[in-house]
Amino acid sequence: MKGILLGKNLEGLKEAAAECGLKPFVGKQLAEWLYVKRVSSFDAMTNISNASKAALSDKYDIGTAPSIGKAVSSDGTAKYLFPVVWGGEGSAVEAVVIPEEDRRTLCVSSQAGCKMGCRFCMTGRQGWHGNLSAADILNQFLGVDSPQTLTNAVFMGMGEPLDNYGAVSQALEVLTAPWGFAWSPKRITVSTIGVLPALKRYLDGQRCHLAVSLHNPFPEEREQMMPVQKAFDEREIISLIRQYDFSGQRRVSFEYTMFAGWNDSRRHADALIRMLRGLECRVNLIRFHKIPDFPYESSSQGVMEAFRDRLSNNGITCTIRASRGEDILAACGMLAGKHRQE
């Protein structure tokens, strides 16, 4: 079975070149073709000799694969279905492009399915079907329409990024390195339910933003919707985050999906204020998007605004996130892979 070049860092590409009997400078050339010029075939690598390309192609594939499905929302949001390079027959994941006036954000998947089992999430309901490779992750950046116009990325698609931290960190290195995509870390946000100790590794090793899925300030209530609360207590997560400085360029935000009658009361707002007081952060309130066989409804707009105002009036920066792509099942918590929705 051939290896895959996409996702390798500069040293890995030099090692791949050496394995094919080529000089280290070929590794630098590969990095430029893969990550700067973003070609998808050896034939396009015009400054590499035919003999060298033949040696490379004997042992390696590029690792890119075109999308196998696309849906466009009435609001312009586009959802893409990508095959999984690592996976078995039929495996696929979804990525979403969200256009706005001043940015074009890619919502990236990191796993096929998810182990975390959050009861309000379509991805979590399908279970876990495997980790994506760094190539699978980066292929989403390359395979959407007009990829060169992407301005931001959020690892908020299918899967728990810190449960696949090896591949995610490898992809982040390619995205932010000067020999890679050369993106500023400020353009990337990684979301997590708070997988410890991978969260500490991320905070120590990365400069990208962090978003934590919180959803309830009371541990016993959070556990009702998020079984992983048993393993990753939100109090430990907040305690760890408080050890890091978020007053500079790196930011931390907390995602809070609002359910009518479950987590949207003044009692919840006040507990959230106590939990986050003194921490430089933002709370993003998210309207719950209805999914089959789930009893809760979203909080009303008025309740969400009152919740937001109570946090804001007590020193917690809080916003209500605009919902995008719900009509094509591309909104938060609705990704499941087209092949699993049919």
In short:
The chain is an alpha/beta fold and 342 residues long. It contains 12 helices and 14 strands. The strands form 3 sheets. A 10-stranded mixed beta sheet has the order 3-4-5-6-9-10-11-12-13-14, with helices on one face. A two-stranded parallel ribbon has the order 1-2.
Describe this structure as you would to a colleague.
This protein is an alpha/beta fold. The protein is 32% helix and 19% strand. The chain contains 12 helices and 14 strands. The strands form 3 sheets. A 10-stranded mixed β-sheet has the order 3-4-5-6-9-10-11-12-13-14, covered by helices on one side. It has a two-stranded parallel sheet with strand order 1-2. A hairpin with a 5-residue loop joins β3 (69-72) and β4. α5 (134-143) packs across α6 (165-176) and α10 (266-276) runs parallel beside α11 (301-313). It is elongated.
Catalogue the unreliable spans.
Answer: none
> What is the straight-line distance between the termini?
32 Å
Counting helices, strands and paired strands, the structural category is alpha/beta
Largest sheet: 10 strands, mixed
What is the number of helices?
A: 12
Give the spatial strand order of the biggest sheet. Answer: 3-4-5-6-9-10-11-12-13-14
Percent strand equals 15-25%
| Average predicted local confidence, pLDDT | 92
- Rg over CA atoms: 21 Å
Helix content: 25-40%
**Bulk shape:** elongated
Number of strands: 14
What is the assembly state of the chains in this entry?
single chain
Task: Give me the strand/helix succession.
Answer: EHHHEEEEEEHEHEHEHEHHEHEHEH
